[in-house]
TrEMBL record, chain A:
<feature type="transmembrane region" description="Helical">
    <location>
        <begin position="38"/>
        <end position="56"/>
    </location>
</feature>
<dbReference type="GO" id="GO:0005886">
    <property type="term" value="C:plasma membrane"/>
</dbReference>
<dbReference type="InterPro" id="IPR001734">
    <property type="entry name" value="Na/solute_symporter"/>
</dbReference>
<dbReference type="GO" id="GO:0015293">
    <property type="term" value="F:symporter activity"/>
</dbReference>
<keyword id="KW-0739">Sodium transport</keyword>
<keyword id="KW-0406">Ion transport</keyword>
<keyword id="KW-0769">Symport</keyword>
<feature type="transmembrane region" description="Helical">
    <location>
        <begin position="152"/>
        <end position="169"/>
    </location>
</feature>
<keyword id="KW-1003">Cell membrane</keyword>
Automatic annotation (TrEMBL), chain B:
<keyword id="KW-0472">Membrane</keyword>
<protein>
    <submittedName>
        <fullName>Membrane protein YqaA with SNARE-associated domain</fullName>
    </submittedName>
</protein>
<keyword id="KW-0812">Transmembrane</keyword>
<feature type="transmembrane region" description="Helical">
    <location>
        <begin position="12"/>
        <end position="32"/>
    </location>
</feature>
<keyword id="KW-1133">Transmembrane helix</keyword>
Length: 476, 40
């Protein structure tokens, strides 16, 4: 049997397991709230893995070694720093979210009630662009990855991945996505703890270090300028993505309040170690002077050389699990946002049955739309992520100040986000892409801070506290 | 600032052992929460 056929079989078998598990989990989903955000009782195991599943994408497993191959040791550390710091930084925010909006469902609940209509609609517009863009990057990035690395034709890879995810995500919504994420993350962990040791037991660490010293000594430099820039711009991008992304807000509402800090901290630690461990495979490529044609294939390339076909399949299982879990989480997050912040505004009297049906229809429609737009493969993953990073960075400080500082003025917050997006994209096109992200973050910070000192507001937190209760009364 | 051979060695094994420890910790928590019916 050819490698291509086996790879397809691996994906079909995994897909069948995910769908069957989702069918089982979906039997406990009876309300629209269960479908879009859980019920605030998610434990440490599922809470942590649902965060890791979203944040560790198939491309993360591939891109971390790519960063290490290009920038050496500091590239590997910077990539891990990017997400780890962001997820850990979200834990105090998550605690605050639980305290001041205990009955919220999405980030839209916060924006609608903390600020005014112009802020809310501008944010919704930008967040839809961002989440849909992210969904496409996963589809396109995943298709390219499966094509280049595992010899599955691009179109087949995209169609197969999206169809399986749409089926299992539409069955049980948030409950299915988080339940299956646990097993997907366990599979990713298996890859991480099995593949690098097999490679290093074959090569030894000392010969690799000596090889890098001889062939590319600059890659052992911890102060390599490109790596340092990547570390700081990447952290800003990561923090922006996490703070703005509804996926994280959904989980902040869904997990048990008393376990929130440990769940987010554990996920942050996981995000630091997992990319770092896979990135170490790139050191072998540098130290032994073995490079694949496409630099993003460096990890599976090295894994296959030292581990053979079996390790290559183990890698496929991990990469595809990571890919599917991220697409499912983003899809469910977008559906939640549309259902809670758009559909409920249009149909405030819709009953639970109608909401649940609409959530399932939206999952299928958005999933198919993302599939169709991903088919032409017109952009690359990293370019799109950095492009969207400008938007993410613009909303970091309206969110942080909005959660903790009653003086943040709604007008100031609106202009901070707009100016940050404009300034960020000017810097993006005139100076450099990563600089655009940093400029956007700085503008967002300075305008929010100085503007609110000059024109302070006096926000009443009680308004946010009443959010869920007000919705219940309205629905009755 | 060049990373030393010892630090390089530690970086590699700590990342692998760290990932493994986290996996077993989360799996342990899963079994514990499953037993106490506090998964969801």
């Amino acid at each position: 049997m050819s490698a291509f056929s086996v790879n397809i079989l691996v994906i079909l078998a995994l897909g069948a397991i995910f769908i069957a598990s989702s069918w089982y989990i979906s039997k406990k989903v009876s309300t629209a709230d269960d479908y879009i955000s859980g019920n605030g009782k998610l434990g440490v195991a599922f809470g942590t893995t649902s965060l890791l599943a979203f944040w560790i994408t198939g491309n993360t497993i591939m891109a971390a070694p790519e960063a290490a191959y290009g920038m050496g040791v500091i590239g590997a550390i910077a990539y891990s720093f990017l997400g780890g710091v962001a997820v850990v930084a979200f834990s105090p925010l998550g605690k605050r979210i639980h305290a001041i909006i205990p009955n919220g469902k999405t980030i839209g609940d916060f924006y609608k009630n903390r600020f005014d209509k112009k802020n809310y609609y501008f944010f919704l517009f930008m967040v839809f662009i961002y989440i849909f863009g992210l969904l496409m990057t996963q589809g396109i990035g995943g298709g390219l990855l499966l094509e280049q690395t595992f010899h599955i034709p691009y179109e087949l890879a995209v169609v197969l991945t999206f169809l399986i995810v749409i089926i299992y995500a539409s069955m049980g919504g948030f409950s299915s996505v988080t339940g299956i994420a646990f097993f997907q993350v366990m599979l990713i962990f298996v890859v991480v703890i099995v593949v690098p040791p097999i490679v290093y037991f074959n090569t030894g660490v000392a010969p690799i270090y000596e090889g890098i010293q001889k062939l590319a000594p600059e890659k052992l430099d911890l102060l390599l300028p490109s790596g340092i820039l990547f570390m700081f711009a990447g952290a800003m991008m990561g923090i922006g993505e996490v703070f703005m992304d509804n996926t994280f807000w959904q989980r902040a509402y869904a997990v048990r309040k008393e376990k929130l800090m440990s769940i987010f901290s554990l996920a942050g630690i996981g995000w630091f170690f997992v990319p770092l461990a896979t990135a170490t495979l790139a050191f072998v490529a540098i130290g032994t002077d073995q490079a694949p044609e496409q630099v993003n294939q460096v990890a599976p390339y090295i894994a296959e050389i030292y581990g053979g076909e079996f390790v290559s399949w183990v890698f496929l299982v991990g990469v595809w699990s990571a890919l599917a879990s991220t697409i499912a989480a983003i899809l469910n997050s977008l559906v939640s946002l549309i259902l809670n912040d758009v559909y409920k505004s249009i149909n405030p009297n819709a009953d639970n049955k109608k909401l649940l049906k609409m959530a399932k229809v939206l999952t299928v429609v958005i999933g198919v739309l993302a599939l169709l737009i991903s088919l032409p493969k017109f952009l690359t993953m990293l370019q799109m992520l950095i492009f969207l990073g400008v938007i993410n960075a613009a909303f970091v400080f309206p969110i942080i100040y909005g959660l903790f500082w009653k003086k943040l003025n709604a007008d100031v917050s609106f202009w901070a986000a707009i100016l940050a997006v404009i300034g960020g994209y000017i810097a993006y096109y005139t100076i450099g892409s990563l600089q655009g992200v940093v400029v956007s973050g700085w503008i967002s910070f300075l305008v929010c801070w100085i503007g609110s000192l000059v024109k302070p507001a006096n926000y009443d937190w009680e308004k946010l506290y009443r959010v869920g209760a007000v919705q219940e009364v309205t629905r009755k | 600032m060049i990373i030393s051979a010892e630090a390089f060695n530690i970086l590699i094994w700590v990342s692998i052992v760290g990932s493994g420890s986290l996996m077993f910790y989360i799996f342990g928590y899963f079994l514990y929460e499953l037993k106490r019916k506090k998964i969801w």
